[in-house]
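One record is kept unedited as follows:
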Amino acid sequence: MEILDKILGFANQYIITLLVFGYVLCSKQPRRKYFILRIIPVVAIGVFLSTNFYRDALSMGGAAGEFPTWPYLIGWIFVVLSIWFCFKINFVAALFYQSLTYVLEHMVFNLRYALQLIDFGIYNDIWQRFILVLIRIAIAFVIYFVLAKRLFKLDSLLDYKAVAILLAVVNVAFTILLNNWFYNEGWFSEALHMVRVVVCILFVAFPFLLSAILCNKMEKQKLEQMIIDGEKQRRLSEENIAAINRKCHDLKYQVRALKVMAGENDVPEEYRNAVNDLENDVMIYDAIAKTGYGGIDILLTEKSLLCDRKNIVFTYMIDGESLRFMEEVDLYILLGNALDNSIEAVEDVDAGHKIINMKVYSRDEMAFIFVENYCKNLPRMVNGIPQTTKKDAANHGFGVKSIVSIAQKYGGEVDFFTDDDRFVLNVLFPCIQATNKM
């Protein structure tokens, strides 16, 4: 029993807990080269810091006597450095992540006092230590399956390094200083231990909440900037297409004049072929869409020319009047993002699948936008929303978000779905509500 008691006691050591919690939390982060070789000295130092020899040596130096928390603070700093040493994360991230696990370790420390109120009989110490090990294992599972998978949600917070450092300092101060100020103070201390458990949970949840708020703020700013950029792009496209329109209109008459001259004179066959080729090139004028709604015409013309350059078959059937209630910039961004996503999905597939189909129509007092395309790699859907396949997910996926945001602005609903190798976007608006806005 004595050996078992020592084993359980060592498993409950402060440094061991910090190392396990810290490395479980960062388990899904990219590892540095030679990770296994790096972790060997980390484990060796961690075991040393958990021995009585280390604590006795520190006490002889007088540091532990003046400030009993020194051994714990030194151990915490060691774990922070070890995480930064083993994982491809910056020092601020290592500092912040370890502050979270420090709070969780402190929660176990306080739960220990609840166990002391239970009498397990002759093997009281062994049972208490065994239950504490089980609690640590349970928390490690929570860290791995809940927190580690969601660390990416803290990226928005970590962008503000000063805020991340401040929160880490608050976590450490809460864990260390309060422990020194209120320790062995009778019933007040016992009650305070239970309060700390709740506060520890709140301290771990708060950064995720704050990061979500910051992320929503940044997304809103990016969507607003997207609207501003979309308006600039729409005006530029309108000017470019108008210029193309004028040039092609003039060129058509000039080409016709050349054909007449060629017919009236004996000219080489090469000349006639060159004139015919020129006429075919000038037929780009006929690619100018005419739906009756300028906002759609500009976009369709722009995307038709892009699809033609990429050898993509782009077909559309558009009732421009059905979306007259929308502001041109909103319509330009919504349809533009939908078509950009479709073009990106089909531009690298074989010719037989380079097809995009768009329909805009009204029926039964509803306005509909329908876009479909072939998709070789169907996106992962989360809550009905396709997730970006790009590695830098934090800076992508705003096209889909803008589609949803603009649709909601007009009381509409968005539906994304996949069918075999087909990706479909459906947007519907209530025409009665839309008519009232006109």
